[in-house]
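Dear colleague,

Following up on yesterday's call, I've attached the two folding results inline so they're easy to grep. Please treat them as preliminary; we haven't cross-checked anything against experimental data yet. The first protein's sequence and structure tokens come first.
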Amino acid sequence: MSNKQFDVVVIGGGPGGYIAAIRAAQLGFNVACIDEWKNAKGGPALGGTCTNVGCIPSKALLQSSEHFEHASKHFADHGIQVEGLGLDLAKMVGRKDAVVKQNNDGITYLFKKNKVTSFHGRGSFVKAGGVGYEIKVAGAAGAEETIEGKHIIVATGSNARALPGAAFDEEFILSNDGALRIPGVPKKLGLIGSGVIGLEMGSVWRRLGAEVTVLEALPTFLGAVDEQIAKEAQKAFVKQGLKIELGVKVGEVKTSKKGVSVAWTNAKGEAQTLEVDKLIVSIGRVPNTIGLNTEAVGLKLDERGAIVVDDECKTSLPNVWAIGDVVRGPMLAHKAEEEGVAVAERIAGQHGHVNFNTIPWVIYTSPEIAWVGQTEQQLKAEGRAYKAGTFPFLANGRARALGDTTGMVKFLADAATDEILGVHIVGPMASELISEAVVAMEFKASAEDIARICHAHPSLSEATKEAALAVDKRTLNF
């Protein structure tokens, strides 16, 4: 009996994989997508890390916890009196799970709509041959089948990086997965690493009542963020109650029935001990190529275990492509999606395009942090002459009405041409505001272009216009 044959086989059903599969199907290809995520009942749960234990559930909990904090601390400012405020954590987590299921089901529907064949199991290479490559699908209860694809797109994502000597047990030492499933609000919560996941999860549990301490090895807070924006964010987080320790060296981590003990040294070299109920480790992610059986076909990996690709996401093998977290570049869901679309179009003989210089970054804390393009420290390092303009939300009418005036918008533009080189925002709805900057930069706009565009009043986007005006030192409302 011959294997089922497909034009395109996608291994991984996360944001990169499922989008690649749908776009390939739209282009007329016969497409299969293999994904092994399981829901609580053991059935398929398409969407990868992002939908199941990443972007989507974290945003659901962030929203719920923000409502709780508003009710407990800020409603009174609006003349709203709340009595008997309580927390039903099980219901909050249940809502998060329902949001995840809605997204899982949505992808299943899209596969049916676009006639993508879905295989539930773990995909791995068997050999090259036949029409292209044989791929094994290892399903539940040891069930296996082999399919063939002319083109293979590997979109297997990434896994949380564990702290050496402190493996994840998801009970006391938590990855992003365990951080989303804490059964009760911990009295004391520790965070190793002040990256995106750590800060977002730390924010959730702080709002719900945990005492949160962040241990960061780097001497600066959010080193990838524009320094001025990062300092503004740090001030806001400390004011909220996050305890942030920078320049630390983490030593031995011990777990017991009581919780977790972390030995660490502060920036001054003084030995310290942190005792917490739970510890979230957020020190980055590693490409997920375990079990892919790359050696069977000679697929080249780099020293990090990432699949080696060129600018077009082509691997070392003909007709094998790789996208998203499993290759070079930022580990962002939307970057994976764009690469997925581009690869599907390249397979069809089109010219797929991804511009790494205009990929936005977002941290969904409160205040939100979002940016696109270069930071001020990067421009200084490369010796590029630039102009900067900032505008505080404190001077924005809509932000005042919202009662959320923390932060600013910052523009960086070329000193000679006025081309926008970077836009950085810390403040309310930064995740939405950054899109205007992405569009502007994609079209090589100048700061003057944004300054001349009419923005609705009153709106948070007026802060974007005013920051663009500030590049030329002519703000109107500050």
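Below is the second protein, in the same order (sequence, then structure):
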Amino acid sequence: MNIPNKITLSRIFLIPVFILLLSISLDWGEWSIGEETLPVVDFVAALLFIIAAGTDWVDGYYARKYNLVTNLGKFLDPMADKLLVASAFILLIEMGMAPAWIVIIIISREFAVTGLRLIAAGEGIVLAAGKMGKWKTTFQLVAIATLLLHNFPFSYLGFPFASLMLYIALVLTVVSGVDYFVKNWHVMKGSK
């Protein structure tokens, strides 16, 4: 197993730790942020999420730079991304920080695109992620991190940055999903 795939596996192994941090009632205290408070456990979970999300860039960069792209990596990397993002969004619902309807749309889009990629793979076609999909992922990651941080440091300014990022991520999720299906509709038409 090459280094990029090991980095991807480390992201997968961080997901249960991230989930446990936010699922178990841990009272590590809290910090006051203006009129808001930030539980230390949420801060630690946000840092862990940011580190896990950052490994996606590292493994991709390393794989491309040293020509270490493998079929295992092509399978593990998007799976790790989807597991991390879906886990975080579902936990944010439980914490009362993200509306369920937004998370349902985001996760449904991921299932739909994954389904299209599976159909394409069955036909021997590889469907790469487009630029809009990469923007969607970036805004999703920023939204999750800032929601976990209770909108810090923007809460000092009274600016709802985390919510804004979440709604932009939602719009990009829908638009990029529609764009992906329109551009790759030939796969659906040509499938047996």
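For the second protein, one point worth flagging: The radius of gyration is 18 Å.

Best wishes,
A.L.
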